[in-house]
Structures are given as structure tokens and as C-alpha cells.
Amino acid sequence: MIFCVEDDSSIRELMVYTLKASGYEAIGFADAARFWQELKKARPQLVLLDIMLPDEDGISILKRLRKLPETENLPIILASAKGTEFDKVLGLDLGADDYLAKPFGMLEMVSHIRAVLRRYKPIEPEPVNSKLVLNDLVLDLRSHSVKCCGSPLELTLKEFELLRLFLENRGRAFTREDLLAQVWESNYLGETRTVDMHIASLRAKLGSYGEKIKTVRGVGYKLEDKE
């Protein structure tokens, strides 16, 4: 559930409509009083908070949320027509996770929300067996290292994450967009050539094991699951 605190009814309704159309549950609030009342009943995934509100300004709400133990880590995006660098820096310094300057597009809003929520993915317990093994290729999650035939491989962070994704999903074909979303998140949205360059580099470093990363014509890439 995403809480949208926005006093302009037309903007608020459009925000809620867009979020629901994008697959999120969302509810809008015209003022701080209604927001605090609902917060006692439910805990949202994220709060999209306008700074200029009729009863209590967004900065004050942000400060209160960060002081409460139950909401100190709640993802918060500030939104305001105040687009100066000072306002943005102030909000971020006080604990906001992101800032949207009005007027902003609805697709831009959804993109920012997705990026913030990705950073707040719950940390899963590390598995007892933290090694991903394919014959003589071993990826160790604890030490963040890779060995091939007993020799260490020097991989970049993105190459490591690509290999990890392939080893965890053997036989699954990923589109370039899938790989961008999962390894690069939103940083290189649309730059699919970035994927090709890293795949080529990873293949070269893996030697004979690089041949197991297959190009799936018209789709993307997959790791051959036959050991």
C-alpha cells in the first residue's frame, strides 16, 4: 500500500489512479490529520508526501516519522512545487529517500517509487550453502568471490551479479531488459548495449564456461543448465 498525501484533489486522484493502474494498492489523503489517522490502522510500503499541506507541512511530518521507531525506516518520497536545490537538499538531509519537483509526470513518479522500493527489499537470511556450483565453477556469496578450476577470477560487481543471476536461474532465458532491471536496477534504463558488453566480458573471463552463456535469438541470454 502506498500513501499519497496531497491536498490538490485532481493531482491526488491522478496519482492514486496511476499507481493502481501500475499494480500498486494506493490511498490518498488531503491533509496530515487524515494521514496520521490511517497510519494508526495500517503501515504503508511507501509514503509520497507533499511539502505544502493545509494543516501540517510535509517537512514536519517527515521529521515525526523519522523519530518514531515503527516508521524510522519507512520509505518516503517528498513532492513539492518548491524545486530549488535548497529544498531538495533539506528534505534529503532530514531523511527523505527521494524528491520529486512539481510538476512531474506520472510515469516519472512510478519510476521513482519503483527505484526506492527496490532499495528497501527485505534482507533475506543467508542460505546455509552460500556457494553456487557448476562443475569446477564456484561462486561464493559469503566471500563474494568466483573460482574456476581452482583459480580465482577477477570479476566486476556487475559481472558477478550477472553470473550469480544465471547460476541461480539455470536454463531460464532473460531479456536484456530483465537483466538491466535486476542487475542495474533503473540506472541504465534503455541502455541494452550495456548488457551485451558485460556479457561479452564475462564470457571471456569464464573461458570454456563462457560458452555456457547462450544467446537466445530474439530474447536475450541464458545459462545452459546441463552440467
In brief:
With 227 residues, the chain is an alpha/beta fold.
How many strands appear in the DSSP assignment?
A: 12
Shape: elongated
Instruction: Note the total helix count.
Output: 8
Beginning-to-end CA distance, first to last residue: 43 Å
DSSP strand content: 15-25%
Q: What is the helical fraction, as a range of percent? A: 25-40%
Major pleated sheet: 5 strands, parallel
Low-confidence stretches at least 5 residues in length (pLDDT < 50)? none
How many whole angstroms does the radius of gyration measure? 22 Å
Provide the structure class: alpha/beta
Round the mean pLDDT to the nearest integer and report it: 86
Largest sheet, spatial ordering of strands: 2-1-3-4-5
Can you describe this structure?
With 227 residues, the chain is α/β, with parallel strands linked by helices. The chain has 8 helices and 12 strands. Strand 11 (213-216) and strand 12 (220-223) form a beta hairpin. Strands 2-1-3-4-5 form a 5-stranded parallel sheet, with helices on both faces. Strands 6-7-8-9 form a 4-stranded antiparallel sheet, covered by helices on one side. Helix 7 (176-184) crosses helix 8 (192-206). The mean pLDDT is 86.
Keywords:
alpha/beta; 8 helices; 12 strands; four-stranded antiparallel beta sheet; single chain; five-stranded parallel beta sheet; 227 residues; elongated
